[in-house]
Design goal:
The complex is a heterodimer of chains A (209) and B (370).
Chain A lengths: L2 H22 L7 H18 L23 H12 L3 E4 L2 E4 L3 H8 L5 H18 L6 H6 L2 H8 L14 H16 L8 H12 L6
Antiparallel strand pairs in A: 1-2
Helix pairs in contact in A: 1-3, 1-5, 2-5, 2-8
Chain B lengths: L8 H9 L1 H9 L1 H4 L1 H16 L5 E7 L13 H7 L1 H5 L2 E4 L5 E5 L7 H12 L3 E7 L2 E6 L2 E3 L7 H6 L9 H11 L3 H4 L6 H10 L6 H8 L7 H16 L4 E3 L2 E2 L5 E2 L1 E4 L6 E13 L6 E5 L1 H21 L4 E10 L19 H7 L2 E3 L3 E2 L7
Helix pairs in contact in B: 9-13, 11-12, 14-15
Classes of the chains: A mainly alpha (209), B alpha/beta (370).
């Protein structure tokens, strides 16, 4: 199997996983843009929580060409592929899973693939984080993402780089974390994942009003 | 948004005041658990999927949280369809979102009473989810994790209601009224002290008092930034919009003044801000810029329509483009958009004309210079 097909299948697996997790948090359908944005956030936030520099979502390449948010062509290709196989239904209100039971379980199965397991674990973390606010808010997260804003403001249509050194989001998150460490007496109870949650809470003025 | 949190003193002092709440959230085992997150996300979806309105309490026994993982995807929506859900104020559900008990009892009308009541329930072994329109306030083991400022519908309704983006027109009207307040309009004009020094520099033969009256309409230098920012902040505070990009740069490097995006990120609105009147130069010694009706009609009309075309070619879904003109002219000269001759529009401009709207001039008058 060539690399391109292999990557497409990986994306297919990710999207099925996202749609299935969506169902568990009450999202009956997920819009195409939201799928792009969930994967974008998973990629951009990965290095903040995970020490490893290697981003396991490396096969996604995003551009900030248009205002409706970052887009990756491989996601759109995968959606076409999944629709042609009737694994998903694409309607005006969003994309819906159309496979069930054993067939679904086989696609989701990661028991023999530790990388897939880790990726599913990470995507679930991101989706549970977003679940707190609802699908309609997913847009706002990416549009408020520092790395994305930087690309839009420089009017760059080039691919968004996710290099650890150049990742503006990572810098902002670390800056956010430092502010906590300097202001709150003991921050040992706050995990990196919780910093992400607090950061999103801040963007939406929830806890830290 | 200011992304420099570390050097932001205001942000840091905010963290200090919220320390208890933050640490509470990050040390609470229930909140940290995946099952709680699943449960919470489902309740949030119930509100969104079914346009929930009003105020209601959902209770679930603490010990049932362990079983939430096996939740059926449609369970939460089925709960909403139940007539018991619609008619009850407090419901107890099990791990499958089946109603096992329900009470019709008006919830406390005052926030402090509601808080006391919910905390009591949370101390009796229940996870308490208080649904208040789009907010979910949670109470766990005597601790509160609120999303909304108010815990009662009556109090929330008294709070200023933000407008939907479709009510942008009403928001402009509200803003027009606001511009009549002296603390609002005075920031656009040069202050009295400045007028006095300007009087000196201009070697006018008029007396100071008369000079001030005759020149009170002179705007500050770079007043376009002040107008744009004032309107932008007003809209942000009064409309449900996700983001307003201050200056979204077009490929042609022209600058869009205000760019609004609805909550779903699907529909875009642009606002071009212009002004007519006179403004002082950077050194503050003479009138440097003056814009007249022709700068608006037809020039700004054409300019805005050209932006629309450029964005259209980029594939953006622009629902409306508004031309907003601040009228700070000395005399009452009527609306700058009056008698616009659309026969001069090019074919491309005509194509976008129906998406274009000239808002009736926003009059700014320095009635009482400060």
């Amino acid at each position: 199997m060539d690399k391109e097909t292999q990557e497409l299948y990986q994306v297919n697996d990710d999207i099925v996983f996202i749609l299935n997790t969506g169902l568990k948090i009450g999202w009956k359908e997920i819009k195409r843009q939201s799928i792009n944005r969930i994967i974008y956030l998973s990629k951009v936030l990965y290095s903040f929580v995970n020490q490893s520099e290697l981003n396991m979502m490396g096969y996604y390449h995003f551009t900030a060409k248009n205002m409706p948010g970052p887009m990756s062509s491989i996601i759109n290709n995968s959606l076409v592929d999944l629709e042609s196989r009737e694994f998903i239904i694409n309607s005006n209100s969003g994309i819906k899973l159309n496979i069930f039971g054993e067939q679904l379980a086989n696609i989701l199965d990661a028991s023999l693939n530790p990388i897939k397991q880790n990726k599913q674990k990470w995507l679930k973390i991101i989706m549970l984080l977003l679940g707190k606010y609802g699908e309609n808010k997913v847009f706002s997260f990416t549009i408020n993402d520092p790395l994305y804003i930087e690309k839009i403001e420089s009017n760059s249509s080039k691919e968004i780089t996710f290099e650890v050194n150049e990742n503006k989001t990572l810098k902002v998150l670390n800056n956010f974390k430092n502010a906590f460490e300097e202001s709150i007496e003991d921050t040992s109870s706050i995990s990196k994942e919780e910093y992400l949650e607090l950061y999103f809470d801040y963007i939406f003025s929830q806890i830290i009003k | 948004m200011d992304f420099n949190f570390k050097d932001n003193i205001d942000f840091k002092s905010l963290l200090k005041t919220k320390q208890y709440l933050i640490l509470n959230q990050t040390t609470n085992e229930v909140i940290e658990s995946q099952n709680y997150k699943l449960l919470f996300a489902n309740i949030k979806s119930l509100i969104k999927n079914n346009a929930f309105k009003g105020s209601k309490v959902i209770l679930i026994k603490n010990e049932l949280l362990t079983f939430i993982n096996s939740l059926e995807s449609e369970a939460i929506n089925k709960l909403f369809s139940s007539i018991l859900f619609a008619t009850s104020d407090i419901l107890e559900v099990n791990e499958k979102f089946h109603i096992i008990d329900n009470v019709k009892e008006e919830l406390p009308q005052k926030t402090h009473e509601a808080r006391k009541f919910f905390l009591q329930l949370s101390n009796s072994g229940y996870l308490v989810f208080h649904l208040l329109e789009t907010y979910v306030n949670t109470f766990i083991n005597g601790d509160e994790f609120p999303e909304s400022l108010f815990l009662s519908l009556a109090e929330k309704k008294r709070h200023i209601l933000k407008k939907d983006i479709s009510q942008l027109g009403e928001a402009f009207e509200q803003y027009r009224e606001k511009l009549k307040d002296q603390p609002v309009y005075c920031k656009f004009f040069i202050p009295k002290s400045h007028l006095a020094s300007y009087h000196k520099d201009s070697s006018s033969t008029e007396g100071l008092k008369k000079f001030i009256i005759n020149n009170a309409h002179i705007l500050n230098n770079k007043c376009e930034d002040k107008f744009r920012e004032d309107l932008r902040i007003f809209l942000k505070e009064n409309l449900f919009i996700s983001v307003i990009v201050k200056e979204y740069i077009l490929e042609s490097k022209k600058r869009l003044d205000i760019f609004l995006v609805d909550d779903y990120g699907e529909n875009f609105y642009l606002i071009e801000v212009k002004w007519v009147g006179e403004s002082i130069n950077p050194s503050g010694k003479k009138v440097a810029t003056s814009f007249k009706k022709k700068d608006i009609n037809p020039n700004a009309f054409f300019q805005t329509l050209n932006y629309l075309d450029e964005l259209d070619r980029k594939g953006e879904n622009i629902v409306r483009a508004y031309l907003v003109v601040f009228d700070a002219r000395k005399e009452e000269l009527g609306d700058t958009g009056k008698d616009f001759d659309d026969s001069f529009l090019t074919d491309t401009q005509t194509k976008h004309y129906r998406k274009f709207e000239k808002i009736k001039d926003l009059r700014v008058k320095n009635l009482h210079p400060s």
